[in-house]
Write a structure and sequence with these properties.
Number of helices of chain C: 13
Strand content of chain C: 15-25%
Shape of chain C: globular
Largest sheet of chain B: 5 strands, parallel
Structural class of chain B: alpha/beta
CATH topology of the largest domain in chain B: Rossmann fold
Chains: A alpha/beta, B alpha/beta, C alpha+beta, D alpha+beta
Largest sheet of chain C: 3 strands, antiparallel
Mean pLDDT of chain C: 88
CATH class of the largest domain in chain C: Mainly Alpha
Number of helices of chain B: 12
CATH superfamily of the largest domain in chain C: Cytochrome-c3 Hydrogenase, chain B
Oligomer: heterotetramer
Number of strands of chain B: 5
CATH architecture of the largest domain in chain C: Orthogonal Bundle
Order of helices and strands of chain C: EEEHHHHHHEEHEEHEEEHHHEEEHH
Bound molecules: flavin-adenine dinucleotide, iron/sulfur cluster
Distance between the termini of chain B: 44 Å
Low-confidence stretches of chain B: 110-114
Order of helices and strands of chain B: EHHEEHEHHEHHHHHHH
CATH architecture of the largest domain in chain B: 3-Layer(aba) Sandwich
Distance between the termini of chain C: 23 Å
CATH topology of the largest domain in chain C: Cytochrome-c3 Hydrogenase, chain B
Strand content of chain B: 5-15%
Shape of chain B: globular
Number of domains of chain C: 2
Chain lengths: ~270, ~250, ~425, ~350
């Protein structure tokens, strides 16, 4: 349970209430994470919470945090130079390698883009090994997209299809309006060669999965990332149970075969 | 330095005294905050606004109803301390009684009584940032709330049963091992299970925890031999209004 | 003095327990009015005690005052046990006295160090005092903590103890549990003696009480937790006659009921106890008093701080004595048998005499309750002091005179929270 | 290894030797109207002559006609209190980095561990073995087990396969016998450390007759369990009853007080406390026992996942009997009956399981 000290070396404001931190180890470092894993980030004296890794290289960790409470406020507001505690990386990953040779469909709602960014980057990095790569991302309003510069960059590329949509349009938005399920519904999906990666609020993930199922995608080809209260990250505190799962250990990434019955039960 | 103010409304003073009872921490605290308004302890009164106000006591007069509004206006963070402030206190028994009768017992001059028909919690008058339970509040919890506000974190004040504290202390349950009626299973934790530690049943100083299943406990109290009057009485003390409310809420 | 009217007013008294105000009107060099106003909203305790089970009286009346809850609890069980003549084991009585000593130590230390001493030394509060004299304030806090340690160990909690009950305690501590207290109290005894020497060195304005004194008296020891009554003019009377001697009167200009003893103004509290029961103090306490310049009676209210310090020495000694000869009561409580009856209970709250009377029915339900707290008994004497201190110091500037008045009130450590018995009046703020 | 016989004095000697060897001996003793587990200075503190009457929501001490020391069933605490303490500080930070708190409770010797509790220690180990706090406490543990000859009114270890004879994991195991031949213990040896200790005690080898008699008594105890789980696949039963209306019926009775989880010898859940002092200079982390009955247990920003009493009870019981298998490869319930006895309203996990199995309400 002992955190490893990391220093914030850069802080980028993403939206009104979220920021991306680049962390570098001060001494010892945690193992290199896989795409989809998360860390427990500790703000000294305030608390520790689970935060996905939104990018990582060479010992550097990138986390994108939304301010929703005391701990996430302290973390997302941590200025360059601040020292945070890091434990991890924990949990299952997106298993991007198993999608080699497939069409990759990435569906992100709001902050869900953070844990999915490593999927996009991974696929683009070894672009030739994947077939079609599509990113469908939604946000409540145009200003609430994470990584806006990067999104624009990707949108400009020919080797990835980027579909953005917002719930509430704002000034300067001439793109589609509506939930991610709409652009997703318009997508041509070839069930036998597609793997989908979905992350966002639970209802959004369920609706998106349903759209994909309707298109004939088998549930074991749909992966999503779950969220439950987490205190330890190592399967000993019990808080993250979701039926048979310890989400910190057996998740956060699970396929829809596993997730469907759990998400459809009330108050599980 | 952040400023701290302490205010008193209808109460016994015990919750404010809890602050002075922090013998080991009082001078440290005074080094971390400016005690800007604390009549019980200081004749120095600094003008507001105040960073944190601790409010003790319930509202029982129109003048106090006005005064709490002023306190709220001057306070960045307002924390209510104790059952009087969070639930109206034992003096809220008047809310359920025939005030006429009360008046005849104590008062010779009925013309002053009209305004005193109820005792209400602070939150019924102004927005409250945090409610610290207890009759009286617990010293460690008070320090935790102040430390948390100073550090900008969420106070670690679990909204759970007294039983969880009782068991963590390794005490033997008085209800199971002795048949002593105990309100622990429905009472908000915080005291550290003081009563079971002296072989008595909890009598509910901290009021109901969220989602307390009062009907289930009431059934058990009856099985342990309490009649309706007795059951009525145990819930009609310092947190009478809160227990009544919890009883009216269907258990989740 | 010129022909003019002077008004002194402190709308919120500081360093007193509870909410009170002060109003003095001086006209033509003559004190026309001197009021200690109590605007603590009433909380109807006597009313809602009606219909409650006798066992609840201890827990409920405790909530009248967070500063001296043990006093309320004690007077409550005294009255109920009196009604039914419950035989209480000496070992239980000793444990009760120990508990009460805890309250005396804690409350006296609070008053001496945190509320009263700053007056004599010219500080607004103990925190400011600590900036210059930290070890002194720390000593006071340590003393207070020792008192609280007794309350916590014996009572289960320092404020509103949970362990006491009618008949005794829910659980009596073991000797092994009490042992560590003794260690702490030995230090406290040194601190208490130092406290006497410290406060003895303060400057005391001249003032002599002019009223009757009343205190609880017990043949066996310096009365704290039980006894009957003794006054200056009347050697003694039993507690059951309390209401025959003490009458309460409503005065038009104040919210509180004024108590009078045989039609006269009177005072209870440390000065009364000390002066009436001096012979029963321990030799150590009496020596400390003598060294501090006190005689066998003390009539200067400003010196009450010294008397409190002497009583603290006594209370610490008593606590040590009780722990030293502790014999765990088993069972920890007598089992009272309810019956219709009336009982009277008195005890000495740190700030004065506290009387309870209950009328109980055959089932042990309270049919009527009367509670006369110390402050309502002392109020007339306090106001009289105010009158005289103002008359004697009319030459002072308003600010200085006002602060002298506040000090005069603080001499009595009035505890205004116990508004069980006060009337409400809309206070005139002029 | 062959069995031996120890007399009553030998048991006291066992306690003495363990203490002399530097162990903190934890065993049953009478306190506050119950047989609790506490550190013992001598065998004289054992609950000689005390038995218990236990029923759902009810526990009473009872005087026995003999001086048996192990003739009682589980009390309010379990060995979890010592191996996985209610609150444990994890690290401190005074500004110079994270300093682990390596608390050292010393070496424990547990005396009188029942079959159910021995299984519970193993179960807890499966979950917590990776944590140094647990490992530190369990390594070097010396276990003296005790066969259950008088199962209590809420015991059902036989139907969970954990007793009444203690399974593996002990150093020594005692079967208490009292008859015309006196007060004695049949001793089985489970480890070399156990054998070494036995060697230092006055004992005699057990005859076949002595062994047969004691084992027969233990076997007979299996038939006297106060309760039993319904036969069949509990794991599937719970899994298939996620939407049963029965959960609402239990919720009417359940106080959501969390007692069942606190007394359960295998419930391991904890909550992390990150706190600072008034100055903010000192920060520290601790963990304390948590309960899935607490509302905050499943809190996610915006609200708790499990709000209703029904969902919280379902979580607990399902975890104990079903999802524990998924997570840790076995049952989370060992059949000690504590949750039944110490539930203030006497909710009975075996009865609830039976109701689900019967499929009606
Ligand atoms: C696997 C995983 C990955 C996550 N990744 C990110 C991310 O990349 N960026 C991001 O901004 N947020 C992420 N979250 C959510 C983040 O953990 C919560 O927003 C955060 O815990 C809120 O804590 P708080 O103290 O600020 O808020 P409060 O609402 O005050 O929460 C109080 C406490 O409840 C618990 N808690 C509350 N919400 C959650 C939650 N959603 N998940 C887990 N525990 C919670 C925490 O212990 C928290 O300290 C992730 C959560 C999980 C489980
Ligand atoms: S004694 Fe009371 S608080 Fe303790 S476990 Fe029993 S019911 Fe709960
Ligand atoms: S009654 Fe006792 S156990 Fe209950 S909250 Fe008050 S002190 Fe705690
Ligand atoms: S089952 Fe019993 S012990 Fe457990 S939470 Fe419900 S009432 Fe409490």
């Amino acid at each position: 349970m002992l955190p490893v000290p990391y220093r914030v070396v850069a802080r980028t404001v993403e939206t009104d209430d979220s920021a991306t931190l680049r962390l570098e180890p001060i001494g010892a470092r945690v193992p290199h994470p896989n795409a989809g894993q998360f860390c427990m980030l500790y703000a000294r004296g305030i608390g520790e919470v689970a935060i996905s890794i939104s990018d990582a290289w060479n010992g550097t960790l990138v986390h994108t945090i939304r301010d929703v409470g005391a701990v996430s406020r302290a973390l997302s507001g941590a200025p360059p130079g601040a020292v945070l505690g890091v434990r991890g990386p924990f949990g299952t990953d997106w298993g991007l390698d198993s999608a080699v040779g497939h069409d990759v469909v990435i569906v992100a709602g709001g902050l869900g883009l953070a844990p999915l960014r490593p999927v996009v980057l991974g696929a683009l990095h070894r672009r030739a090994e994947y077939r079609r790569v599509t990113l469908v991302a939604g946000a409540r309003s145009p200003g609430e997209f994470l990584f806006r510069a990067q999104l624009a960059e990707w949108a400009a590329r020919a080797d990835i299809d980027v579909e953005l949509t917002v719930d509430r349009p704002g000034a300067g938005w001439d793109g589609p309006v509506g939930f991610v399920t709409e652009p997703l519904g318009r997508l041509d999906v070839e069930p036998s060669t597609t793997i989908a990666f979905v992350c966002g609020p639970e209802p959004m993930m369920r609706f998106s999965a349903n759209v994909l199922l309707d298109k004939g995608l088998a549930p074991d080809r749909i992966r999503l990332s779950l969220e439950r209260n987490m205190q330890c990250g190592i399967g000993v505190c019990g808080h993250c149970q979701l039926g048979p799962l310890l989400v910190c250990r057996d998740g956060p990434v699970v396929d829809y075969v596993t997730a469907e019955p759990l998400l459809s039960a009330r108050e599980l | 330095m952040p400023s701290l103010a302490v205010w008193k409304f209808a109460s016994c003073d015990g919750c404010q005294l809890t602050l002075l009872d922090c013998e080991d921490e009082l001078l440290t605290l005074a080094g971390q905050v400016t005690i800007a308004h604390f009549l019980e302890a200081s004749s120095q009164v600094l003008p507001g606004p105040y960073d944190v106000s601790l409010v003790e006591g319930s509202i029982t007069t129109p003048a106090d109803a006005e005064r709490i509004r002023q306190v709220r206006e001057q306070s960045r963070v307002l924390v209510t301390i104790g059952a009087c402030a969070t639930a109206g206190g034992i003096q809220a028994l008047r809310n359920f009684a025939d005030v006429e009768q009360f008046r005849s017992v104590v008062y010779a001059r009925p013309e002053y009584i009209e305004t005193l028909a109820t005792s209400t919690p602070i939150a019924a008058h102004v927005p409250v940032d945090f409610e610290l339970r207890g009759c009286p509040i617990d010293k460690r919890q008070l320090l935790e709330v102040i430390s948390a506000f100073l550090a900008g974190r969420k106070p670690d004040i679990p909204d759970t049963s007294v039983c969880t504290e009782c068991k963590r202390r390794g005490l033997t349950c008085v209800m199971v091992a002795d048949g002593t009626p105990c309100l622990g299973p429905v009472t908000h934790a915080g005291c550290g299970a003081l009563c079971p530690a002296v072989a008595r049943g909890c009598y509910g100083c901290f009021g109901p925890m969220t989602g307390a299943n009062l009907p289930a406990l009431t059934g058990q109290l009856r099985r342990l031999g309490m009649d309706d009057t007795a059951v009525g009485r145990v819930f009609a003390t310092f947190n009478v209004t809160a227990f009544r409310e919890a009883d009216n809420e269907p258990p989740h | 003095m010129s022909h003019r009217t002077r008004q002194l007013r402190v709308s919120s008294l500081a360093r007193v327990e509870g909410e009170g105000a002060l109003r003095i009107v001086v006209a033509d060099g003559h004190v026309e009015d001197a009021q200690l106003e109590i605007y603590e909203p009433p909380r109807f305790f006597e009313a809602f005690l009606r219909g409650r089970a006798f066992r609840e009286a201890v827990d409920i009346t405790s909530r009248i005052c967070g500063i001296c809850p043990v006093a309320y609890q004690t007077s409550a069980w005294n009255a109920i046990e009196d009604a039914w003549q419950v035989p209480v084991d000496d070992r239980i009585s000793a444990l009760r006295r120990l508990l009460y000593c805890g309250e005396w130590i804690s409350s006296h230390a609070l008053h001496i160090y945190l509320l009263h001493a700053p007056d004599f030394l010219g500080y607004p509060d103990a925190v400011a005092l600590a900036r210059d004299q930290r070890p002194t304030v720390e000593r006071g806090l340590a003393l207070k903590k020792a008192g609280n340690a007794i309350l916590e160990l014996v009572g289960g909690r320092a404020i509103h103890p949970v362990n006491p009950r009618v008949g005794g305690f829910h659980r009596a501590p073991t000797a092994a549990e009490l042992a560590p207290l003794a260690e702490r109290l030995r230090h406290a005894l040194d601190d208490a003696l130092t406290t006497v020497r410290w406060v003895a060195g303060f400057d005391f304005p001249e003032l002599q009480l002019d009223c009757e004194l009343a205190a609880v008296h017990h043949p066996g020891h310096y009365a704290i937790e039980q006894g009957d009554l003794v006054t200056t003019t009347r050697s003694s009377f039993p507690r059951r006659d309390f209401l025959e001697h003490v009458t309460e009167r409503q005065v038009p200009h104040s919210t509180a009921l004024y108590a009078e003893l045989d039609g006269r103004r009177y005072l209870t509290g440390p000065l009364a106890r000390y002066s009436l029961n001096f012979a029963q103090l321990s030799p150590l306490a009496r020596d400390a008093a003598a060294a501090a310049g006190l005689e066998a009676t003390c009539g200067n209210p400003f010196r009450s701080i010294v008397v409190r310090a002497v009583e603290t020495v006594y209370a610490v000694e008593e606590a040590l004595r009780i722990i030293g000869s502790y014999d765990r009561p088993d069972p920890p409580a007598a089992d009272p048998t309810p019956g219709a009856g009336i009982g009277h209970g008195v005890s000495e709250a740190p700030r004065g005499l506290l009387y309870h009377r209950y009328e109980l029915d055959a089932e042990g339900v309270i049919r009527d309750a009367t509670i006369i707290p110390p402050t309502s008994q002392n109020q007339a004497a306090i106001e009289n002091d105010l009158r005289r201190i103002v008359s004697a110091n009319l030459g002072l500037e308003d600010a200085a005179l006002t602060s002298l008045c506040e000090r005069t009130i603080r001499n009595y450590d009035p505890c205004i929270s116990c508004s069980a018995h006060f009337l409400d009046l809309t206070v005139e703020h002029r | 290894m062959s069995s031996a016989v120890l007399d009553r004095a030998g048991l006291d000697q066992l306690v003495e030797l363990l203490i002399a060897d530097g162990y903190r001996v934890i065993g049953p003793t009478v306190r506050d109207g119950a047989i609790v587990l506490a550190e013992l200075d001598s065998g004289a503190q054992l609950p000689a002559g005390w038995g218990v009457d236990v029923a759902p929501g009810r526990y009473r001490l009872r005087r026995r006609s003999d001086a048996a020391v192990f003739a009682h069933s589980a009390g309010p605490q379990s060995w979890k209190q010592f191996l996985h303490p209610p609150r444990r500080r994890l690290f401190t930070d005074d500004g110079a980095g994270f300093e682990p708190v390596e608390d050292d409770p010393g070496r424990y010797a547990f005396l009188g561990v029942r079959g159910c509790d021995l299984a519970a220690i193993a179960t807890l180990g499966t979950v917590l073995q990776g944590t140094d706090g647990f490992a530190r406490r369990r390594d070097g543990l010396f276990v003296v087990a005790a066969s259950c000859l008088e199962p209590g009114g809420v015991c059902f270890c036989a139907s969970m396969g954990t007793g009444p004879a203690p399974g593996p994991g002990y150093d020594l195991s005692l079967t208490e016998r009292i008859d015309d031949d006196g007060h004695r213990f049949l001793v089985d040896v489970g480890s070399e450390a156990g054998a070494a200790l036995l060697d230092r005690l006055a004992h005699h080898p057990a005859t076949t007759a002595e062994q047969d008699e004691a084992r027969g008594a233990v076997a007979a105890a299996a038939g006297r369990m106060g309760r039993q789980m319904p036969v069949g696949d509990l794991r599937a039963l719970l899994r298939d009853n996620r939407e049963s209306p029965h959960w609402d019926a239990v919720a009417e009775r359940c106080l959501t007080c969390g007692n069942c989880t606190m007394v359960c010898p295998t419930c391991f859940c904890t909550t992390v406390e990150d706190v600072t002092d008034l100055t903010g200079e000192h920060a520290e982390r601790a963990e304390r026992w948590a309960s899935c009955f607490e509302l905050a247990f499943s809190y996610l920003h915006g609200g708790s996942v499990r709000v209703s009493g029904a969902s919280r009870y379902r979580q607990w019981m399902t975890h104990k009997l079903s999802t524990w298998h998924d997570q840790f490869g076995g049952s989370g319930c060992v059949g000690c009956g504590r949750c039944i006895a110490w539930c203030p309203v006497g909710i009975d996990i075996t009865a609830e399981a039976a109701a689900l199995a019967a499929g009606h309400d």
